[in-house]
Design a protein that fits this description.
68% helix; globular; 0% strand
């Protein structure tokens, strides 16, 4: 049985996908790109890449995780720390073993 490197999946796939989803939700609330950049703690260039779909591949998160993303986007819009919110979502992705569905490279399920 091959084990995936969850840290690599988090860094290269999950975090960019979560930021992309959060960016979309914050943008839909008419929050400026500069403010989104500040709230997410990323550069304006990174925000531009999310905006133009050049960063953050499409990940089919479960309905449960999508709801968590929505709640976190609202919390971030209100001033909560984005890194803490993203860490919370990642923790739940790991607990639910959804990371294996996202990974798709291993047979660790």
């Amino acid at each position: 049985m091959i084990k995936c490197l969850t840290q690599r999946i988090e860094l290269n796939v999950i975090i960019p996908a979560l930021r992309k989803e959060i960016f979309s939700q914050l943008s839909a609330k008419n929050i400026s790109d500069a403010e989104i950049s500040r709230k997410l703690g990323i550069t304006k260039a990174a925000v531009s890449q999310y905006k133009h779909k050049k960063r953050g591949r499409k990940v089919n998160f479960s309905v449960k995780i999508r709801k968590e993303i929505e709640k976190s986007a609202i919390a971030i819009a209100k001033g909560k720390n984005a890194d803490a919110e993203i860490s919370k979502i990642i923790s739940n992705i790991k607990k639910s073993r959804e990371i294996c569905c996202i990974c798709g490279e291993c047979k660790c399920q």
